[in-house]
Design goal:
The complex is a heterodimer of chains A (about 350) and B (about 200).
Chain A lengths: L1 E8 L6 E5 L4 E5 L6 H13 L8 H4 L7 E9 L2 E9 L5 E5 L2 E2 L12 E4 L5 H4 L2 H15 L1 H27 L5 H40 L5 E6 L7 H7 L1 H7 L10 E6 L2 E2 H4 L2 H23 L4 E4 L8 H14 L4 E5 L2 H9 L5 E5 L1
Parallel strand pairs in A: 3-13, 3-14, 8-12, 12-13
Antiparallel strand pairs in A: 1-2, 1-4, 4-5, 5-6, 6-7, 9-10, 10-11
Chain B lengths: L5 H10 L7 H13 L2 H17 L1 E2 L6 E2 L5 H4 L4 E8 L2 H10 L4 E5 L17 H10 L4 E4 L5 H14 L5 E4 L15 H9 L5 H4 L1
Parallel strand pairs in B: 3-4, 3-5, 5-6
Antiparallel strand pairs in B: 1-2
The chains are: A alpha/beta (about 350), B alpha/beta (about 200).
Bound molecules: adenosine-5'-triphosphate, magnesium ion and zinc ion.
Chain lengths: ~350, ~200
């Protein structure tokens, strides 16, 4: 799959601009605030019907304008595919695939997949477990729509159960029938999410480990593992044995909503011991593992959008990363940097045809 | 909005308190009433007042009634050993409109949702359990909205009544009649496949 043309109207800082992507590898350079990240975001938007960064379309619309348009021409399996996104003045969003409007955005998502790697994504490594659950849930939902459904159902029941636990404390009720009902509902969806996470993480984590070592160039003793109390006890038993504790705490203390990806480094906690470059390397490793899993499921390589990769990585890690991303990988890559010479130098060293866009 | 008469203003204010009625619509309705004979408007306001003053809730099923027992519970033509559990009175009216149901109802008065402050105690569930014990009920049909809170409510009531010899069913969930498979969402289609029907029941 290759994005060949992109035209952007009133999206973020762009008023009207057209881009042609003639090579598989594109370097994009320009000074701070010129719109490099926004350009990658426009590409992401075409694939996912939403921005990688902003929550509302109002924030994506050029200040002072109403509505925006993003148009892309992709080449996939020797055919050209045209994707048009229009945000109308009324705020209504429309997506067209080869001039045909979709009824639902969900029908489009997944056709032109992309993996975005932004500097701020390092919070996946450094922040709490919620960030890592968000990362895996976003990926697994793309691999299996049933996963998302089960997860959403679990979360809704969990919210109800937790409110009920608070209600119980206020009213000192001693009949726990409704808790039994909520637990049964949590067991049904929670066990299914656990099994899927387990199966997918068994693929994702070894892939990420291999990528990390490849980027680092040496074995640093990194260990990644799926952490969950469901490894010890099935959901049903877990909820049952926590009943008194949960009533006292007024919330469900254990379950798949507390799952995490454990990251350690020769036995030490990665988050707190690793250097900034090592954290960034692990971020790349996880994202490239995501890329690989999407590629296996889809049967073709998603687009890789690398924003500000050159920060924090040393020359050898940078080389190893680019080597994999641009040479071993055969999919399309868009890379941004503020320094034109640095970007040019790194790309030229790969000895593959590339295009440089100066904003 | 500026009014030349406080009588007009009061009436508009009262109308605009109704759900879905804004100030403009309220004004239109009030001006319409002003054009009517005094007698007709009197009938209108009497109907509303007596409704509020004299309405009763059926002591058996909590449906709206003129007496202590509603006309459905009192009817010898209805199967008294069949109970359809609904969330509210609007659901009774919707099911009655189908003319396909000949049993009685039980109006819960809501659905279990602690997030909205509604626990089982706020609903007419005790009374339902009591009915099942007293009335030799043969079948309990749940006609609740097909969502998580609906399921919770069904499982909860089922748990409370499982010691009784009652057949428990729920209304079918699936593809809308006259709809097209292609346009059904995956969840609905998935459920319709796992809860498929024997073909002979389609024609019956
Ligand atoms: N809705 C919008 N309307 C107009 N301008 C916007 C809008 N949203 C963002 N911008 C502008 O876009 C610019 C940021 O663009 P972007 O983040 O793509 O820069 P960048 O080239 O990636 O910079 P850096 O090198 O610092 O990462 C900012 O100047 C910001 O004011
Ligand atoms: Mg940027
Ligand atoms: Zn009645």
């Amino acid at each position: 799959m290759q994005l060949q043309q992109l035209s952007i109207v009133q999206f973020k800082n762009y008023i009207q601009q057209r881009f042609e992507f003639t090579e598989r590898i594109t370097g994009i350079c320009g000074k701070n605030g010129i719109g490099k990240t926004n350009l990658l975001d426009a590409v992401y938007y075409l694939g996912f019907t939403k921005s990688y960064f902003t929550k509302t379309d109002a924030a994506n619309t050029h200040h002072g304008a109403t509505g925006f348009r993003i148009e892309g021409v992709f080449e996939k399996e020797a055919n050209t595919h045209k994707v048009v996104c229009i945000l109308r003045e009324t705020g209504k969003k429309e997506f067209y695939y080869n001039e045909q409007a979709y009824d639902k955005m969900a029908q489009h998502i997944g056709r032109f997949p992309a993996v975005f790697i932004a500097p701020d994504d390092v919070h996946i490594i450094t922040e709490g477990s919620e960030e890592r659950r968000r990362f895996m849930d976003a990926l697994f939902s793309q691999l299996d729509s049933h996963y998302l459904q089960q997860l959403m159902e679990y979360n809704k029941v969990l919210q109800q159960k937790n409110s009920y636990l608070k209600l119980l404390a206020e009213r000192s009720v001693s009949d726990y029938s409704l808790l039994d009902v909520y637990d049964a509902q949590l067991v049904k969806t929670g066990s299914s999410v656990y099994e899927k996470r387990n199966a997918y993480l068994q693929q994702l984590l070894p892939l990420a480990g291999t990528f990390y070592q490849q980027i680092a160039g040496v074995d640093e003793g990194l260990e990644l593992a799926y952490q969950t109390s469901l490894h010890q006890y099935p959901m049903q038993q877990l909820l049952q044995q926590n009943r008194d504790k949960d009533i006292a705490a007024q919330r469900t203390t254990q379950g798949i909503h507390r799952d995490d990806i454990g990251m350690s480094f020769s036995g030490e906690v990665f988050k707190t011991t690793a250097s900034q470059g090592q954290r960034k390397s692990l971020l790349f490793a996880l994202k490239l593992a995501e890329f690989e899993m999407l590629k296996i499921t889809k049967g073709f390589a998603p687009l890789l959008l690398l924003d500000d990769v050159f920060e924090k990585l040393d020359a050898s890690r940078m080389h190893n990363l680019l080597q994999w991303v641009c040479v071993q990988n055969n999919g399309q890559v868009l890379i941004t940097d503020t320094h034109k010479e640095r970007l040019q130098q790194h790309l030229a060293a790969l000895q593959k045809p590339f295009q440089l866009i100066e904003l | 909005m500026q009014f030349s008469s406080s009588l007009l203003e009061n009436a508009v204010n009262e109308f605009s308190k109704l759900p879905g009625i804004g100030k403009k619509t309220a004004l239109r309705l009030v001006l319409h009433l002003l054009k009517q004979d005094v007698g007709r408007v009197q009938m209108f306001s009497d109907a509303v007042t007596t409704l509020r003053q004299q309405i009763k809730y059926c002591q058996r099923c909590f449906n709206i009634a003129d007496a202590n027992t509603c006309s459905i519970c009192a009817s010898p033509l209805r199967k008294q050993r069949m109970i359809c559990v609904v969330e509210n009175i609007r659901d009774v009216i919707a099911i009655e409109a189908t003319q396909q149901y000949s049993g009685t109802y039980h109006v819960l008065g809501g659905i279990i949702s602690p997030l909205d402050g509604v626990g089982p105690d706020q609903l007419n569930i005790e009374a339902l359990v009591h009915r099942l014990q007293q009335e030799q009920t043969e079948e309990l049909i749940f006609a609740l909205n097909p969502n998580i809170q609906g399921d919770t409510t069904i499982y909860y009531i089922q748990k409370k009544t499982q010691h009784l010899p009652v057949k428990v069913t729920t209304i079918a969930r699936g593809i809308a009649f006259g709809g097209e498979l292609e346009y059904a969402d995956e969840m609905t289609l998935g459920r319709s496949i796992s809860n498929r029907l024997p073909v002979e029941r389609l024609v019956k």
